Amino acid sequence: MDTAMTAATAATVASATTTASDTAAIPGGFDPVLLHNWISDGRLIETAAGLVAADPPLPVQDAGLVEHEKNLLAAVLIGPDDQRERWGHFRRAIGLRFDEGVPGSLWSDPGHRALALEIDALFRGRRDIAVLNAQALREDLQQRALDGRFRGSLQQIETALADLLAWGREGGPHPELEFSLACQLFQSAKARALFYPGLRRLLAREQVDGGIDAELEHCRTLLNEATAITAGRMRQNLQLCSPTDAARECIALASLPAEQRPQPISTGIPSLDMDMRGGILPGTGESTWVLAARSGVGKTTVAIAAAMGLAINGASVLVLSCELSRRAIGARLLSHYCRRASGIYSPRFTSNDLEGRGAVIEGRDLEQLHQLAAQFSEGITPNGQPMGRVLYQSQFAATAEQLAGLVEDCKSAHPELAAVVLDHFHAMGPTPGYGSNTTAELAARATTIKALAGRCELDVFVVAQLNRGAYGNPSGPDVSHLAGTSELERYASAVWLIDRPKVDQFQAPQPGLLEVHHGKVRHGQMAAGNDVSRTTIRLDRAHCFLEADEARRVFCGSDLYPGVECL
């Protein structure tokens, strides 16, 4: 792909050079005016590889498509709010994956094309700002131009932006169109612009003698392109990498100064972080991490604590449960936030209370709950720092394939999504087609989850059940006790087996005290040379909050794992 783009760029620039030498007589150089005009016309666009030739848009037969482009872009840009949700909706409507950019060839107007590419780059995290609206976009463009990092026509984008804002304000109903309808109208108009001109050319050849095979194939191509837009199946062709890509990427990563390299984001649970090389790296995830325990031990509690720890430390997280209701998940997430904000244990705001099953919250407690809930809703940590996005949903008995589709859709809408918690593996519905062969079905389920992690560049935390063999094992549970299949352990980067500590018959178990058995560690425990096979943690289960972790001692005095708390 890079070779093709380079060739196209070379040909385009060479053409510009030839014309420039004819008109401006600049020996061996470019005519800057002509090059500027080509950028303004949209014939050259800015990419990570530099200036490349743009796909030529199809000729527009009427102004209908331009009007729908204006409606769509104006609805995304107008207003002070963050409109990333709307742009994500548009991307999903046309069927783009999270790692695919919006094609420049979708837009008939050069100014709209340049503006749409900037919007899409901002949405995909390729710009310095995270808020999508006209003012934020304009400020980012101006700053990049001052820093010498903008290659393109600032005037062209500014003109298009002003035109769209005026269109939205003067047109009245345009930006207020129900956005899904605006997307559908744009898709239909674009499909017509693709299909009908080609169809007319085909009809003009109706009386031509000769074979019709080529014309039928062309008609099929037109139909597929139009259908891809209207049915939301737009996909870019498979792109293969070359040694050039490997060399460029590896050199860029290896030469990046240590202080500029992305730091792992902690789960807030050192017993997990020590097997994850410090935490997760958003945008580079591909691992599955298994949290397993017997029923009632607390595996979901640990998973919720890890999800909230990641979010508090800045990672965006999705929690999906096949056995908890949406209300129950939300109550656990908010109760964790309230417990963290209090700093010390408090019986207030437990998940039971927040589900409406415990004590009535009133008076000053209710006022404080409103305040904490508002901060949580706004994505602000208790200490005032921004936190990652927290998303959740209940999916009772959903199959692995249904969950994978939901995660892919969420990743397309929120490219910053870094981790997913699936609760839990053995509560998922069976994939049809396996009949009574439960072992094969569970193996396929594990394969689907592993493929999802790699395809969406996510870290997936899989909560799982242990079989009956874990109950009486004197040394505690091991990976052989994962219920139903060995594939889950095979694909996992780490397996944590959680159990209550063994106590004699005369000793009562300590509330919230759990043992984490490190059953599998693919990457090794980077813990200052220690080999830790078992650690002890203590949970405030009512708030899904980690209170103590024996593994904290491993991290104290070490700078290998930024973000990990030490006591």
Fraction of residues in H or I helices: 40-55%
Instruction: Report the span from N to C terminus.
Output: 51 Å
* Number of E-type strands: 11
Averaged pLDDT, please? 83
In the sheet with the most strands, the strands line up as 5-4-6-7-3-8-9-10-11
Identify the overall geometry.
globular
Q: What is the percentage of strand-forming residues?
A: 5-15%
Please outline the major beta sheet.
9 strands, mixed
| Total helical segments | 19
Whole-angstrom Rg: 28 Å
Which runs of at least 5 residues are low in confidence (pLDDT < 50)?
Answer: 1-30, 57-61, 172-176, 558-564
Structural class: alpha/beta
Order of helices and strands: HHEEHHHHHHHHHEHEHHHEHEHEHEEEEH
Helix-strand blueprint:
Layout lengths: L1 H23 L7 H9 L3 E4 L2 E4 L10 H14 L6 H11 L15 H14 L10 H13 L7 H17 L8 H26 L8 H18 L12 H12 L15 H4 L14 E6 L5 H14 L3 E6 L4 H17 L8 H4 L8 H15 L12 E5 L5 H14 L3 E7 L14 H19 L2 E7 L21 H5 L2 E6 L13 E9 L12 E7 L4 E5 L2 H4 L12
Helix pairs in contact: 3-7, 3-8, 4-8, 5-7, 6-7, 8-9, 12-13, 13-15, 16-17
Keywords:
alpha/beta, 567 residues, 45% helix, 19 helices, two-stranded antiparallel ribbon, 11 strands, 9-stranded mixed sheet, single chain, disordered N terminus, globular
Structure report:
- The protein has 19 helices and 11 strands.
- It has helices at residues 2-24, 32-40, 64-77, 84-94, 110-123, 134-146, 154-170, 179-204, 213-230, 243-254, 270-273, 299-312, 326-342, 351-354, 363-377, 400-413, 438-456, 487-491, 552-555, and strands at 44-47, 50-53, 288-293, 316-321, 390-394, 417-423, 459-465, 494-499, 513-521, 534-540, 545-549.
- Strand 6 (417-423), helix 17 (438-456) and strand 7 (459-465) form a beta-alpha-beta unit.
- Helix 16 (400-413) packs parallel to helix 17 (438-456).
- The two termini are 51 Å apart.
- The relative contact order is 0.10.
